[in-house]
Amino acid sequence: MSQIENLAIQILEAAGETVDDYAGLCGELVDAIIHKHGEDAVSIMYIKPPSLERCIQNGSKLWSYHMVAVIDGTVHDAWFPDLVLPPQEYLAAAFPGQDLTSEIDGWKKEVNG
């Protein structure tokens, strides 16, 4: 478990909400993080499958994309609360074995599971 507190979880807890309140709305949670911490402090990471025909597997859920906040070089994602890690480590732990494309503030990188 990470020693860094997950800022996405902080936002949810402060509002008395859970990820169930944000089903399909990961971008809304990123916006809330930006609102609290400022757009200069927060980078946005988009995670996408390599083609539109594929989805990202998250347990029993399939996502066409996922968006998370990156602050001070670590990912803050309420759907993976214990994975406050640098982006590459986060992707390997959150989506093992999946071929993905990720972008942080427009910089694209291929991730092959």
Describe the structure.
- With 113 residues, the protein is an alpha+beta fold.
- The protein contains three helices and seven strands, in the order H-H-E-E-E-E-E-H-E-E.
- Strands 5-4-1-6-7 form a five-stranded antiparallel beta sheet, with helices on both faces. Strands 2-3 form a two-stranded antiparallel ribbon.
- Helix 1 (7-15) crosses helix 2 (26-37).
- The radius of gyration is 13 Å and the shape is globular.
- The model has no long low-confidence stretch (mean pLDDT 84).
Helix content: 25-40%
Silhouette? globular
Q: Provide the gyration radius in Å.
A: 13 Å
Spans of 5+ residues with little confidence (pLDDT < 50)?
none
Approximate strand percentage = 25-35%
Structural class: alpha+beta
Strand order, largest beta sheet = 5-4-1-6-7
Mean pLDDT score: 84
Element order, helices and strands?
HHEEEEEHEE
Q: First CA to last CA: what distance?
A: 22 Å
> What's the β-strand tally?
7
Tell me the layout of helices and strands.
Blueprint: H1 7-15, H2 26-37, E1 42-48, E2 56-58, E3 61-63, E4 66-71, E5 74-76, H3 87-94, E6 100-104, E7 107-111
Antiparallel strand pairs: 1-4, 1-6, 2-3, 4-5, 6-7
Helix pairs in contact: 1-2
Please tag this protein with its features.
alpha+beta; five-stranded antiparallel β-sheet; 113 residues
Question: How would you summarize this macromolecular structure in one to three sentences?
Answer:
This protein is 26% helix and 28% strand. The protein is of the alpha+beta class and 113 residues long. The strands form 2 sheets. Strands 5-4-1-6-7 form a 5-stranded antiparallel β-sheet, sandwiched between helices. Strands 2-3 form a two-stranded antiparallel sheet.
